[in-house]
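Supplementary Methods S3. Input chains for the assembly prediction are listed below.
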Amino acid sequence: MTSIVYYFQVHQPYRVKPFPYDAIGSRTDYWDDWLNEDVAKRVAEKCYLPMNRQLLRAVERSSGAFRCSFSVSGTAIRQLADWAPEALKSFRDLADSGSVEFMCETSRHSLAALADPEEFRAQVAEQRALLKEHLGVEPTAFRNTELITDATVARQVKDLGFEVLLAEGADQLLHGRTAQALYGMGGADSFPLILRDFQLSDDIGFRFSNQGWEGYPLLAPTFNGWLESLPDERPFVGLFMDYETFGEHQARDTGIFDFMDTMVDLAVASDKLDFATPTEIVRRDPIVEDLDYPRPISWADEERDVSAWLGNHMQRAAHEAIYKLGPAARASGDPDLLNTWRDFTTSDHVYYMSTKCETDGDVHEYFSPYDSPHDAYLNVMNALEDLRRRLGAD
Amino acid sequence: MKVLVLGWEYPPAVAGGLGAACHGLTTALADRGHEVVLCTPADGTPSDTEPYPGIVRVPLGSDAGFSPFHPGALLDPYAVDPAPERAPAAPAPETEADPPAESSASSHARSARKLYGADLSAAIQRYSREAVTALAGHDFDVIHAHDWMTFPAALRLRFARRRPVCLHVHSTVIDRGGRSAPGPVGSISAVERAGLRTADRVCAVSGYTRDLLVREYRLDPGRVSVVHNAAPEGVMSPADRPRDPAGPTVLFVGRLTRQKGVGFLIRAAARVLESSPDARFVVMGEGEDRTRMIEMAAALGIGRRVFFAGGVSSALRDRAYREASVFVLSSVSEPFGLTPLEALRGGAAPVLSDACGVREVLPSAPVSPPWDAAGLAAQIVALLTDEEQRLGVVAKCRSELERLTWAESAQTLEAALEQARSTSGRRISG
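Predicted structure tokens for the full assembly:
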């Protein structure tokens, strides 16, 4: 019996509005509220609402046998609370069903775990409060921003009392071993890691509607056949993806909703498959061995490292400029300024500055509201300069 | 004297300094009582929108208007990115009374596309072809032609009408990073070389440019007159700067091209920031080096202190002049350099490249080779840290600037035109 561990990432950033040089010192409206509201409403309409409804029906239909997990970033929770409260309510319904686990992350979907441990703890505390308030849950599992993981991250997560960390099943980590087993983090007291099976996850998340793919069109019986043919001793398979896959990255007319519905029913009926959440796995399965992380590993781009966010000089300059303001923002005693600064820590801002070309460049461009990485960089640097002056920081 | 002026840029069709210089010299000639026939490219707009007493305007090259394109034009460094100009994002909603009609930045970009667009070669040919026929009814004693785009027309008229030619060089292809002479036939350097060696007299915008012409095109220095540009008009703003809590500003204004040496300034900025960590560097302008410069500043770890303002309106640029403590002209080769004079009006102290013409008229301005990051940085730091010294430089340069007028320049030009006429007997064979 192999357990399917679904994990869906829900995230929306506060995108920065065009902020030219001459706006410094004369404007403080950094966020493109019009765009952010528009995106939040559109995604709620096309993805969150219909897919949450479908998953809730699957839970009810299977009497709770269907299980899955989510992490909803704090920025996404706040946007939904403001602009699509009915979508937030539908997440709460899933939480109330008892079959859906909501995990913790940083409240701003930030890189604080790498850059600023104090800020990391503050954002985790903030996220716990948001989850309690809006979804009524107290999380026991953790996933760091974009699955960025190494021993330092794992130690911080462990110290904050979580039981398990989700991570990417990268080749450079596994060296031919399977991702379908519970590992421990070397150098962090074997803190449990549940890894993503990127092959099977990306079959749904990226390749599903790719007509050039040899597996196209992917039908649920085929996909479940692959899952059922996994060796018996594999305790689980991690299928982790952006939740926006359903209805947004893969439009409804690709058949993605029907695929998921059928896939779930077939798995529930199968005697070789069932569903589990991350906390259920870690409480059930033994750790097979420790993994050694040579460097932080994420689920992004071919490299599976942090180069999607910190790969070029602009990204590193902006990253540095953002975290340099942290002490002043926390010491300011002004909750608005602190909140504003924290929204700049969202990793998407530096992601938009990536200058990678070829396939990953397309992905970056797909998500970016800017004409070019250089525009994204200048925009954020200008807004940060304005914020720096308001904070009276160096 | 009856003077035929062949111009390429002329207000309102202005892409750079050439238009202002042509306008300043031509109107000053008319003011001195000369009868002027002014030919500029026909761009479909009425040429006499701004009639000036003593100047008759004749548009040239109207046979097909301006239309793209000739591959040779790619050689032209003025050629503007065919993509719509990178908007400085959305204009800030509450920017004060900027004339909303059109920023000078975008009008410059539009003019530049029109004047130096993809079809530059063909446009020049049309202009030259029409010169002889369109001017059949006009009489003149001497031809005064501005920059290489008009040289072919000037030489045709010289032959057809047996009139002496004075060619005026505001900028050469060598300044703009082109190859040294001799270039292939038909290249810009070949046009410049052939024209300048045939001309009866040559005017250069600076001693720097004269020396370059002598060196690169082997001109006889005795045939070249130096006619400096005048200072742009406008009121002087107070030069003293109230202490800005955000730090003093070092300003650059210009196209982001290799010629302008922005990279040298950014390298120097890294050194300046070591001793003056609160300084800010503001780079105004667009160009093909933009992305490289942005990345360079980030790579040097000074991304937080270097701001790229893009193309801005003239109102914003003037404000930047009034706010900046120091203005840097970092060009690798600058025939003249109008921006330091504009900056002086605003009260910014100039630091000049040693390879520019404007230093000849601003002898009090600090000078450094642009590639010498340490030297350039030292000049900037000296002005940033000693306000008294900075004010002294501004005051001295301003008094030097006051002496620069178009009337003064036109007097020198007049002498050059006379010399063209007096030598023409020898140089134009009957």
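Chain B has a mean pLDDT of 86. Chain B has two domains: 2-79+116-230+407-427, 249-402.
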